[in-house]
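User: Could you write out the 3D structure of this protein bound to 2'-monophosphoadenosine-5'-diphosphate? I've included everything you need below.
Assistant: Certainly. Input first, then the structure.
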Amino acid sequence: MGLNDKTKRLAVIGDPIEHSLSPAMHREFIKLSGDDAEYTKIHVTNKTLADMMEKVRTQMCGINVTAPHKVAVMEYLDEISDDARLFGAVNTVVNDSGRLIGYNTDAKGFYASLLREGIDVKDKEVLFFGAGGATKSVCMYLAMKKAKSITVINRTKEKAIALGENIKSAIGYEIKTEMELPHYDVVINTTSAGMAPQLDVLPYAELDFIDENTAVVDMIYNPPETKFLKLAKEKGARTLNGLGMLICQGIFAYELFMDTKLPEGAFDAAKAVIGR
Ligand code: ATR
């Protein structure tokens, strides 16, 4: 790639970062838009984060941030968008003439990936499995999109209760931490159960609350069909993996980096490159 002073430097940072699909996806966006830019992956540890952020400020156009830095990166920023501040996590940093601005496109990307499949949460009974880092922003976003109820079930129940208290004090929405209903409209797995090395593990032991009227979403995209999604499909449920979320959050991030709008075909183009 011919780099010159005008070439915009972009990257994803994380630890580990080796298997990130972001470079392949963003290079597709660069190709589609014809922008003069490069996108790499950079292995950044807790120890090297401060140096990395200085490099972003002086040499780069922007970065995507993945685990474990989504919270820690916030202290190096000059400005944080309202929703990133609310969610307490940043996945996109834009360099605006030396000022670093943090955004969060994860929850918006997740929601957009549901809408693409005709799944809306408004007035719906929503059930989450998991209360880790990935859950909070999405849970809050769906609350703000007027889900009728949100229940969060986690192996370690105290974490679900703490998440509920956090969301209540942030936006006044009451999260349930017990399964009270015989049926849920939208069921979302945010746990790592189903991903290697837990390929054969379900996030929850029985799936009685899933039927042909349920939309079941797994944030995992590798493997493309977890055991959870496979069993849900066998019960007649509509199923969706996490690839759409990955692509939609990437589209929103790229549009922030470049202050532009990607063409309609960006989703399918990215899917063709990183989907399997
Ligand atoms: P994180 O660093 O985000 O916590 P993680 O350790 O992969 O990442 O766990 C994310 C979520 O997956 C957590 O909600 C975790 O439950 P705990 O809070 O009880 O640890 C959940 N999780 C991981 N493995 C699981 C399993 N086998 N069954 C149910 N939940 C599981």
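The chain has a mean pLDDT of 96.
User: Perfect, thank you.
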